[in-house]
Amino acid sequence: MSKDSYHKTWKDRLHDIIYEADTPIGKVFDVTLLILIVLSIIFVMLESVKGLPNDIYNILYYGEWVITVFFTFEYIARIIAIKRPSRYIFSFYGIIDLLSTLPLYLSFFLTGTSALLAVRALRLLRVFRILKISRYIGESNRLVRAIKDSGAKILVFLFAVLVLCIIMGTVMYMIEGEENGFKSIPISVYWCIVTMTTVGYGDIAPTTPLGQFIAALIMIVGYGIIAVPTGIVSAEYAADRKSGKVHLNTQVCSNCNASDHKDGAKFCHKCGEDLHNE
Amino acid sequence: MSKDSYHKTWKDRLHDIIYEADTPIGKVFDVTLLILIVLSIIFVMLESVKGLPNDIYNILYYGEWVITVFFTFEYIARIIAIKRPSRYIFSFYGIIDLLSTLPLYLSFFLTGTSALLAVRALRLLRVFRILKISRYIGESNRLVRAIKDSGAKILVFLFAVLVLCIIMGTVMYMIEGEENGFKSIPISVYWCIVTMTTVGYGDIAPTTPLGQFIAALIMIVGYGIIAVPTGIVSAEYAADRKSGKVHLNTQVCSNCNASDHKDGAKFCHKCGEDLHNE
Amino acid sequence: MSKDSYHKTWKDRLHDIIYEADTPIGKVFDVTLLILIVLSIIFVMLESVKGLPNDIYNILYYGEWVITVFFTFEYIARIIAIKRPSRYIFSFYGIIDLLSTLPLYLSFFLTGTSALLAVRALRLLRVFRILKISRYIGESNRLVRAIKDSGAKILVFLFAVLVLCIIMGTVMYMIEGEENGFKSIPISVYWCIVTMTTVGYGDIAPTTPLGQFIAALIMIVGYGIIAVPTGIVSAEYAADRKSGKVHLNTQVCSNCNASDHKDGAKFCHKCGEDLHNE
Amino acid sequence: MSKDSYHKTWKDRLHDIIYEADTPIGKVFDVTLLILIVLSIIFVMLESVKGLPNDIYNILYYGEWVITVFFTFEYIARIIAIKRPSRYIFSFYGIIDLLSTLPLYLSFFLTGTSALLAVRALRLLRVFRILKISRYIGESNRLVRAIKDSGAKILVFLFAVLVLCIIMGTVMYMIEGEENGFKSIPISVYWCIVTMTTVGYGDIAPTTPLGQFIAALIMIVGYGIIAVPTGIVSAEYAADRKSGKVHLNTQVCSNCNASDHKDGAKFCHKCGEDLHNE
Questions:
Q1: Do C101 and C161 share a domain, yes or no?
Q2: Which pLDDT belongs to residue D206?
Q3: Looking at residue B216, what is its pLDDT?
Q4: Do D153 and A143 touch (CB under 8 A)?
Q5: What are the CA-CA distances from residue A184 to residues A191, B110, D195 (Å)?
Q6: Which structural domain range is residue D126 located in?
Q7: Does any CB of chain D come closer than 8 Å to the CB of residue B91?
Q8: Of the spans A141-150, C154-163, C177-186, which averages the highest pLDDT?
Q9: Distance between CA atoms of A159 and C138, rounded to whole angstroms?
Q10: What transmembrane ranges does the database entry give (chains A, B, C, D) (predicted)?
Q11: Same-domain check for residues B50 and B7
């Protein structure tokens, strides 16, 4: 895949390893990273569980240190390996990577660590970058495109559902009233969303005959309109499926960080940099 | 878009601003209106929440006054700007607009304001008219058409579901009986709708073995038939998607209030009036 | 539609009225029948509600008598109007019609009327025959065909879901055990069906960590496989939509009771009888 | 179907009976087996129910013996009938068949029988092999293929849902906290899966306004993305539907156990063995 690797500087080789997954070492690196991320998430989850033996909490603490150190080195390496670091640092994954390393360092300054939990959970988003190593790359590209194509339509649809929920929630507030659990309009709207999306917790449920009748109507309508977004995605996906070639390489430009290059492309489609991919 | 605006009277210009969104002022007007409507809905919701500081209830009261005055002027402007006011007044949005301004005035005569809550919530429907300013116009037009095309079929389907629910509700009433929460046939039918639509509150749940067996059957059937409306919309939408050009302008005839004109149309397709759109 | 109606005997004319809906009187008859059936169902439902004024129970009792008498005459008329009565009597709707008239007569002999409730609810099925008067006839024909085409596949699918539920139900019975509400394997299977179909009553819910983990797996799998029947119906319906002419008449052969004749057909496609439809 | 059956050895004939379903005896064998498997599953389920008369437990015990003996003979026959027994023994169904016969024998050595329950429930999987006798064979082949084709995409999708659930679960843990039932992050993630898949038990439900707001967002998002796997399967299935011939025979090679032969094939597509199918 890279006959001319002797032309590459060590920076180029570092770039191939950590940004791409077409070489064996690049794959090993990605799998290691994947395992560490998953471990890290398991640590975050276990820390919140009460009543485990103290030894486990100690392991979680030291494990977090090891992962943080690895993430720190990886973050620095990513900045070094690219020619224009700002292109990486301010990209979506650049910010996620930074947030993945910070929590432990910040916990020295901030005592309430719970606020940092969600930040640590964001590490999981990094997994999506690594997915490119797998055979799922083509599938996920196509999926993302189908969702993007359907996005505007589904947003319009979800907005219409929300408007319907606000109107019906107000109606149910007037019918059922505060004594039956519909304490305010926001609560009623929450109930209406729970019902319309067919989640149906049952923490709030209509008890008056008229309320139950309206609720049944809302359910039947919700049952009918759940078909709409599905129909949209089906049609978009089917159309996309016919049109389409999907690229299967994981090339990332070492200058401007652009990805999604054509299979076999030699130069970056964005900045013209050599992709070292012959 | 409107080179000949010097030919337009002030009424025509007012019409462009409040009925259309192809000019900058028209867009500003629509965005202002959108913000006011959303604010108004937030006010309605917050008013129903108990236990907030008194200051907030005061702000809500004066905010409602400001919005009502704006809506009143807007309603009058809409009547003035159109050549045949009756076309607007008795249209769907004309009635919604009137209902949007009335509640506060009516509250002087009617003491129980709760009956006016739902009317105020209807204001939200006005948002759909404003959506034309956005890039979602094409999508929503296509969505509405797909739903209309599928409408008759989905109604037939929902009716069949309702018949099934009534029959199975009666059966469950006989099996489970009043001691297990199935107090009457209407309640049993309500339970059956809750189950069939996969909402599943759990406020009523079968407890006898036979009842649970029948309930499991109802669920599996419901799971199988949820596919039907989806299939219909998918097929309709896919067919519509192929056939289709959608108009992206927001022209409204200043004489007869007709919309949905062809892109670049100069005259109303309904009454022949000049659209002042050159 | 029927220029040669003077050739018709009174039996033929009766047949046109009660079996078909292409003539004005036929439509009036069908609408009357529709109203009576719906009324009858409302009566069945209200009878089961406790705590209403006694007057209402009296009205329900006499109303049931009126409806039963009408249904009795209608049943006799249907037998007279057809040349081969056995074709009607032993048809699906023939049996439903008989069951619709019997309950009140049987209640003289059988004291426990509750067993007859479900039979009375079956009257609702008669509505589907009357639907042919409406503009929905084409839609419902196409719907029924799409469901028939998908039937075998959806059955295979539902059977697979059932097998999965039995296996996972047994696993959950072993994990959660009787102390957490999973009292026996049938109950666990019932829980698994409730979960897999996303109904989720919450009357039984896993409480052990392992149980919750398995339950989460079951839900995610259920979420993924709900797509399968939908995809099937979508594809079948889309294929059917392209292929297809649907007949819009309501002709029924007065000899053999066959329906679904071609628009403009003069003779029964099954027995060759003249359809009197010129 | 088999004119040259006189060329066949008794082993070949045994093979036709127990591995295939194209001959009358093969069908009888398969139906017998189907009934025994279903009976066996009913026995497993009933055994777990408490409070039945002792006689029934006795019948279940002896019934289990009869079925085990039959399964034992069947397993031996299957090994004899095939030329390369290892091909059967280590195949998926070979292992399932072995597991179907063992539980009762093992219960002599192992006292806690509950661990063997799930193994006995696995017998149900054998039903899928027998389904080949039915007219559903074509359908299920096509179904399986559509699911296989969509598999990678749906896995990517389910993984994305899982990541979303972990992140939102962590957020809800911080918002709602332990006092509202969100005791740890794993529990919160479990709640998020229950909500996102629209199961909605209601054993854990948000009670703070912010928590309910986030929950409503999660539901609406879940409602929107349920469309994605459906769209995928629809498109794959529709594409598959057009492309395709499906084989309707149940031929299994007596040498290497390969199935899925072309209709009318004379020799095994895998090892070249004569299929004795002329």
A1: no
A2: 92
A3: 92
A4: yes
A5: 11, 21, 22
A6: 3-131
A7: no
A8: C177-186
A9: 32
A10: 28-46, 58-76, 152-175, 213-235
A11: yes
